[in-house]
Amino acid sequence: MTEELLAEASAQSPHEWRPARFMVIAAHPDDADFGPAATAARWIDQGSEGWLVCCTSGDQGGEDPDMDPLELAAIREREQRAAADVVGYKGVTFLHMPDGALVNDLILREHLVREIRTFKPDAVLATDPENTFPRGAGVNHTDHRAAGWAAVDAVYPAARNPMAFPALARGGLGKHVVRRLYLFWTHRPNAYVDISSTVARKLAALRCHASQIQDFTEVEQWIAEWSSGQGKEVGVANADSFYHVVIDDDETPEPAEAAEQAATVEA
Ligand SMILES: [Zn+2]
């Protein structure tokens, strides 16, 4: 089957694979809720465990130049923790990197590798870093792109390479293999998750971000329009769409298991 036909066939039904453990990596408080909150809520309802990592605390997310950025960061962390409770995450980590100045460097990647090796997710959800000019929506924030690249680079190869950031491994955080990536806010969706049962939870989570949303009716209309549009692609009422990357499928053993199997065969 050609790649085009495969894409066409898979786009006809909702995406059903579900990670037992997943991590959402976002640049700002509220990204995860404008992003994949309904998918996260659905997976959690089905028995998955989720963890949220916010690279920044959104200390530049306002219109008032006299506002104390640390005060704003504290407000936004409170809002994000409340929203995370609505979605059902096990917890939230704030990395306290500077808002508006996020860089995909070794410092950020080491923080993310530490989070990944601690929580051990099967899948990581992050912003699609290649979507610089979303259709009809101007420019995608530099922090979204930086967080997306850092998440991808932390997943592969760093988190699974025991020699990357050796101090982590020596401190007890050995390598961890993340099998799949789900990149949201993408211009090239290839997986649609049915969120008909949880789109209301996404809205409830968004309501927690009072400092960021002036007109909630407008947000509600926009989310309804967008998620029903994505749903149409796979014949359900509402869907989230992702660029889904399988790094290792479920049948692929982890490198250590593969080495063991090879040794058994040789013996
Ligand atoms: Zn953002």
Give the secondary structure arrangement, pairings included.
Blueprint: H1 3-10, E1 21-26, H2 31-34, H3 37-45, E2 49-56, H4 69-87, E3 91-97, H5 106-119, E4 123-127, H6 142-155, H7 166-170, E5 180-184, E6 191-194, H8 199-207, H9 216-232, E7 239-246, H10 255-266
Parallel strand pairs: 1-2, 1-4, 2-3, 4-5
Antiparallel strand pairs: 5-7, 6-7
The structure holds zinc ion.
The site of zinc ion has 5 residues, from loops.
3D architecture notes:
The protein has 267 residues and is α/β, with parallel strands linked by helices. Helix content is 42%, strand content 16%. The chain has helices at residues 3-10, 31-34, 37-45, 69-87, 106-119, 142-155, 166-170, 199-207, 216-232, 255-266, and strands at 21-26, 49-56, 91-97, 123-127, 180-184, 191-194, 239-246. It has a seven-stranded mixed sheet, sandwiched between helices. Helix 4 links the parallel strand 2 and strand 3 (91-97). Helix 3 (37-45) crosses helix 8 and helix 5 (106-119) crosses helix 6. It is globular. It starts with a helix and ends with a helix. The mean pLDDT is 92. Bound molecules: zinc ion (ZN). Zinc ion is lined by residues 27-28, 31, 141, 144.
Task: Give a brief description.
This protein is an alpha/beta fold. It has ten helices and seven strands.
Give keywords.
267 residues; alpha/beta; 10 helices; 7 strands; 42% helix; binds zinc ion
Q: What is the oligomeric state here?
A: single chain
Give every kind of bound small molecule, once each. Answer: zinc ion
Shape: globular
Report the C-alpha radius of gyration, rounded: 19 Å
- Low-confidence segments, ≥5 residues, pLDDT <50? none
Termini, distance in Å? 39 Å
